[in-house]
């Protein structure tokens, strides 16, 4: 979601200072929304016994990500459970559409802010880390750092937008669902607890990593 929006970001590229300011405001908006989401998911993590539940949560997130790619949006929107989510995403996209037609500093900040709430495979992955912090502030900080890490690539997308052909942009957009499925599979693999360090740790390995002082009894 982020790449295509960055390609068409309405920054004034004829003025280097305005380009720098506009791009910066866009990033600040994204960082703010990521931090808010991180705060909420950090709060969620506080109420979970992560050593026993994190694996199941990982599988659930992975399955949801894959289903969102494979099942048409029109079909999912028929169900009462998913309808509020798609209605919310629809409202966010509507707001983005309005601001993408403007070139003010307020519009650029707003584009970044609403951009941060759109579905994105990489954001889903970061949110699992925010949940694992088990703390509001740490969750917000985790997502803020994640956002900072995306700035170089997203800035490159802003400046390359005019140089990439429409066909190339379309190929990039078509490749996004593939990456989401891959990330979803990695979530499921992690949740299976196969004992692969960092990739698919067991519940015991997670317990030790979350609490080095924990005593594990056989």
Major sheet size, sense and barrel closure: none
Strand content: under 5%
Order of helices and strands: HHHHHHHHHH
Tell me the structural class: mainly alpha
Tally of DSSP β-strands: 0
What average pLDDT do the residues reach? 76
Q: How many H/I helical runs?
A: 10
- Radius of gyration from CA coordinates: 19 Å
Instruction: State the assembly state of the protein chains.
Output: single chain
Unreliable segments (pLDDT under 50, ≥5 consecutive)? none
Q: What is the helix content?
A: over 70%
Question: How many separate domains make up the residues?
Answer: 1
What would the principal axes of the Cα set say about the shape?
globular
Distance between the amino and carboxyl termini: 46 Å
Overview of the structural elements:
This protein is mainly alpha-helical. It has one domain (2-210). The chain is 75% helix and 0% strand. It is built from ten helices and no strands. It has helices spanning 2-7, 16-46, 50-70, 73-76, 83-100, 105-115, 121-133, 136-160, 166-191, 203-210. α2 (16-46) packs parallel to α6 (105-115) and α2 packs antiparallel against α8. The longest helix has 31 residues, at 16-46. The protein is globular. It starts with a helix and ends in an 8-residue tail after the last helix.
């Amino acid at each position: 979601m982020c790449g295509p929006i960055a390609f068409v970001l309405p920054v004034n590229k004829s003025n280097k200072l305005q380009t720098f300011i506009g791009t910066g405001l866009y990033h600040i908006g994204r960082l703010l929304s990521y931090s808010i989401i991180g705060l909420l998911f950090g709060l969620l993590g506080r109420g979970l016994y992560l050593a026993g539940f994190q694996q199941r949560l990982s599988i659930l997130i992975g399955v949801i990500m894959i289903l969102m790619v494979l099942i048409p949006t029109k079909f999912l929107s028929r169900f009462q459970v998913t309808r509020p989510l798609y209605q919310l995403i629809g409202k966010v996209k509507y707001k983005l559409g309005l601001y993408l037609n403007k070139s003010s500093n307020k519009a650029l900040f707003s584009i970044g802010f609403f951009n941060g709430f759109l579905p994105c495979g990489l954001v889903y992955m970061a949110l699992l880390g925010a949940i694992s912090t088990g703390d509001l502030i740490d969750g917000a900080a985790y997502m803020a750092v994640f956002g900072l890490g995306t700035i170089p690539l997203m800035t490159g997308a802003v400046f390359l937008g005019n140089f990439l052909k429409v066909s190339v942009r379309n190929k990039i957009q078509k490749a996004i669902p593939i990456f989401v499925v891959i990330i979803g599979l990695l979530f499921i693999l992690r949740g299976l607890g196969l004992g692969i360090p960092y990739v698919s740790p067991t519940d015991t390995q997670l317990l030790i990593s979350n609490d080095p002082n924990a005593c594990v009894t056989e």
